[in-house]
Amino acid sequence: MTGLEWKLDSDRRALTLTVSTNPPVVLTLDAAQTDEMLENLGRFRAAMTPGHSAIFAPGQKVVCARNPAWLAELDMMQGDSLLHLRDPHFGWRHYLIPREEAKKLADVLRNQVEAPIAAMPENKPN
């Protein structure tokens, strides 16, 4: 992005953000401040327009975390599923999934793991 320079300090304990203004604005954030900034940026982005699409088209190329740590527990208030996923970029993210949606997700995952693994076409890259 033009006008912003992000740099991880050599000790990997701080992030320095330089905004190209006259004079330049330099912000140095530790890990906790960076987490706070990410939470606030996410909250503001959710309120911005245009919003993210509510529909995801399957088959798109995506960058993803492989085999993230996860934990599921029962929400004591409604009996829904509380799903915790650890994202390497953002830490633990938490999702409350209504019972019926959790059942659909369980069925989809079960069908996927029980289906035979399709052979990759020779001319298709990974």
Description:
This protein is α+β, with helices and mostly antiparallel strands and 126 residues long. Among the domains are: 4-46, no CATH class; 70-114, no CATH class. It contains two helices and six strands. It has helices at 31-47, 99-114, and strands at 4-8, 14-19, 25-30, 70-74, 81-87, 91-97. A three-stranded antiparallel beta sheet has the order 1-2-3. Strands 4-5-6 form a three-stranded antiparallel beta sheet. The longest helix is centred in the N-terminal third of the chain and has 17 residues, at 31-47. The model has no long low-confidence stretch (mean pLDDT 93).
Search tags:
alpha+beta, 3-stranded antiparallel sheet
Describe, in short, the structure shown:
With 126 residues, the chain is an alpha+beta fold. The protein has helices at 31-47, 99-114, and strands spanning 4-8, 14-19, 25-30, 70-74, 81-87, 91-97.
Topology summary:
Blueprint: E1 4-8, E2 14-19, E3 25-30, H1 31-47, E4 70-74, E5 81-87, E6 91-97, H2 99-114
Antiparallel strand pairs: 1-2, 2-3, 4-5, 5-6
Major sheet, described briefly?
3 strands, antiparallel
Strand content: 25-35%
Strand order of the largest sheet: 1-2-3
Shape: extended
- Sequence stretches where pLDDT stays below 50 over 5 or more residues: none
State the order of secondary-structure elements, H for helix, E for strand: EEEHEEEH
Overall pLDDT: 93
Binned, the helix content reads 25-40%
Number of helices: 2
Supply the helix-strand structural class: alpha+beta
Gyration radius (Cα, Å) is 20 Å
* Count of individual beta strands: 6
The termini sit apart by 29 Å
